[in-house]
Amino acid sequence: MSKQSVNMRLDKEILNQAKKVLGQKETTATVEMALRNTVNNRKAIEIFKKTSGKSQWEGFSQDE
Prior knowledge:
The protein is mainly α and 64 residues long. It contains two helices and no strands.
């Protein structure tokens, strides 16, 4: 994995909240995890959009 150095001005309060929520101590790890989560969430939303309504649920049968 290639890394790139960047300068960022981050809101300290939201950064500290993100560190706590994500269980990270380092700023870099927090930002990387937040970015990964954002990308994964977007992918999941796209998959859901593509597959929603594609199958029908018949419900529970009377025999069960």
